[in-house]
Amino acid sequence: MTGILTGKRILLTGVLMESSIAFHAARLAQEQGAEIILTAFPRPSLTEMAAKRLPRPDDVKVLELDVTDVAQLDGLAEAVRAELGGLDGVVHSIGFAPQDALGGNFLNTSFESVATAMHVSAFSLKSLTTACLPVMREGGSVVGLTFDARYAWPQYDWMGPAKAALEATSRYLARDLGKQNIRCNLIAAGPIRSMAAKSIPGFTELAEVWNNRSPLEWDVTDPGPAGRGVVALLSDWFPKTTGEIVHVDGGLHAVGA
C-alpha cells in the first residue's frame, strides 16, 4: 500500500523520547513511506535511542545540530545531501526557555533569558528553514509546532511571547517561500506530557483544565493526533495551504469558558 509520504525525504528535529510529538511524526512518516533524517541537541544519544524504536531504525541517520550555532547550520545542507540527496519536508519541534522565564516570573525575567527563549524557540524556525533551502525541492513543506499564542497561559510566561514570535515567523516564511512553492504551516497542539512539558511549572494543572473545556476528549499522554497533523501537512494533501495554524487540541481553541 502506498503511503501519503511515499518518495518524500523529511528532516525532523526534536525526537527525544517516545512521548514527544516529533517522535510520533517520525514514526508515522516512516509508516507513510518517507525517508527520514533526525537532528539532535544537546544529547544526541537520546535521539539515537529513540530512533531505535522507529519502524525502520536501520534507515535513520542522526545529525547533531544546535540551531543557535551558525557553523552547524551552514553545514546542514551538505550533510543532508550526503545522506538523502535532498529534502521534501522539514519539521521544527524546538523550544527552550531558561527556568527564570517560566513559572510566574514574567515581570522579573532578564532580557538575556528572554533573548535565549526567542532565539531557540522562534528565530530557529527561520534559521533551520533557510539552512535547508539549498536541498529543499519545489513543492516542499515546513511544519512547526506551537502552543496557541493568542492567550496568556498560566506559568507559561515568556514561552508565550516566544510562541507568538514563532507564529509570526511562520507567516513571514510562508510569504517569502511561496515563490519557490514551499509551504510553511504550524500545528497548535494541546498539552502533551512530554519531556518539554516537565520543564513547565504548573503543567499538570493546565492539563487537568484542558479536558474539562475541550469539546473532544483530550489525552495528555497521546501525541499521536498531533503527529498525524504534522504528517498531513508534510503530504501533498494540502498543496495550497500555507501560513496556517492547524489546531489539534480537542477543539478547545473554539470555545469559551
Task: Note down, in words, how this protein is organized.
By secondary structure, this protein is α/β, with parallel strands linked by helices. 39% of the residues lie in helices and 16% in strands. It has a 7-stranded parallel sheet with strand order 3-2-1-4-5-6-7, sandwiched between helices. Helix 5 (159-177) links the parallel strand 5 (136-146) and strand 6 (183-189). The longest helix is centred in the middle third of the chain and has 22 residues, at 111-132. It is globular. The N and C termini lie far apart (44 Å). 45% of the residues are buried.
Total number of helices: 8
Which strand order spans the largest sheet, edge to edge or round the barrel? 3-2-1-4-5-6-7
Q: Give unreliable regions as ranges.
A: none
Q: Assess the beta-strand content as a share of residues.
A: 15-25%
The structure class reads alpha/beta
- CATH homologous superfamily descriptor: NAD(P)-binding Rossmann-like Domain
CATH class: Alpha Beta
Secondary structure: number of strands: 7
Mean pLDDT: 94
CATH topology: Rossmann fold
CATH architecture annotation: 3-Layer(aba) Sandwich
CA-based shape: globular
How many strands, which pairing sense, and closed or not: the largest β-sheet?
Answer: 7 strands, parallel
Distance between the termini: 44 Å
